[in-house]
């Protein structure tokens, strides 16, 4: 028997049995492209740590790529590329294709650009024990203990009493000060250490250390607070009551860095969900297909349930589609019915350090490609868009035809937790939708990890989706 001849069993096994491939192994020399794409992503991460900054940065990139500003009620033209800025926190990018939009629908790609963080309360500032603090209210699902004892930066806006808008971004440049949340020294933490992880640091202890030098005047009280306010007044022109109309967030001051000797991974704040926002934006920027109408949604408020008028549980997507349809003289009911959507959100990558919460046969594996989640939700597929076999079939075929490395993913074992995405809000508009995104290690931590190979596969997936036919 020839040494290289395969047995019938080996051939059958290769044909019939599904297996996951590590993208790095499969791509071989293609690793250069993967690493090059990751550089652009890291630059984007450092420039866009909040939904407001992501909106600003993506508008800048959109303009560079020939997109022009559009608003609800404005006309659109076949061949045109537009962006719609919804209140500085939610962005739409779209290209109008030459096909009849009522019959061909829209290729929709949706990611969110908000991430878990600590928002300042409306009356944040106080002084106690020789220190000045800002009170915070956490935003999204965080493990509170992870946000203590790390460098934090402040990002956001203040609207002054006269209506002027002041932008705040401090703690990112090497020369900037950073901010900090205290934790208890282990020597005195006997009681704290015995508490369940979730209650060891209550939300009201997430107070940000912002100052410690008293104002030099014997005639005033709260001198440290006054000194901090005088610095803020000098730098930004703000007073204590201006915090009432402000949105300022404390986010990790870390920069995106390669992780590992071989640089396989990227560590950064807010991969969830900018690791999908960046690929869908670059996919529409680079899309050369002029037949299909494509639309990218960069959503706000996903981490708190998508409520509010910049979140996908609002009527905004429907209004955008209606407005485009009306300009093209198309029936919006048909446009929605013939549209399809890839909801681009992250999923949990299998972590061997916590293997007990994963069901390995249905978890996404790091570096094995972009991950398709047919359903998310919790407690028996509750509160999820469970994509149809037919639509999953369409997307699967598209990925196979375009050589996109993909895998399927379920968010952990049944009944150990769960989660959701914007998919259910889009599918309720009568749009076929499925989740496709990057597997993440330590999701929602101040510093999360993703694989550059999965980032690149996700980019390839969305490039292919832009030109899919119905
Ligand atoms: Mn997400
Ligand atoms: Mn999330």
Poorly predicted runs are none
Number of distinct helices: 14
Small molecules held by this entry: manganese (II) ion
| Number of individual domains | 2
Strand order of the largest sheet: 1-2-3-14-4-15-19-17-18
Round the Cα radius of gyration to an integer and report it. Answer: 24 Å
Largest sheet: 9 strands, mixed
Short key terms for the protein model shown above:
Aminopeptidase i, Domain 2; 470 residues; seven-stranded antiparallel sheet; binds manganese (II) ion; 14 helices; nine-stranded mixed sheet
Task: Describe the 3D structure.
It is a single chain. With 470 residues, the protein is α/β, with parallel strands linked by helices. It has two domains: 19-115 and 269-465, Aminopeptidase (3-Layer(aba) Sandwich); 117-252, Aminopeptidase i, Domain 2 (Roll). 29% of the residues lie in helices and 23% in strands. It is built from 14 helices and 21 strands. It has helices at residues 8-16, 23-27, 31-47, 51-64, 101-104, 190-193, 197-200, 223-236, 271-286, 316-327, 332-337, 389-401, 423-427, 452-465; strands spanning 68-69, 81-86, 90-95, 106-112, 117-128, 131-139, 152-159, 165-170, 180-181, 207-211, 246-252, 257-259, 265-268, 293-299, 340-343, 347-348, 370-373, 406-408, 432-437, 439-440, 448-451. The strands form four sheets. The chain has a nine-stranded mixed beta sheet with strand order 1-2-3-14-4-15-19-17-18. Helix 9 crosses helix 14 (452-465). It is globular. The N and C termini lie far apart (49 Å). The model has no long low-confidence stretch (mean pLDDT 96).
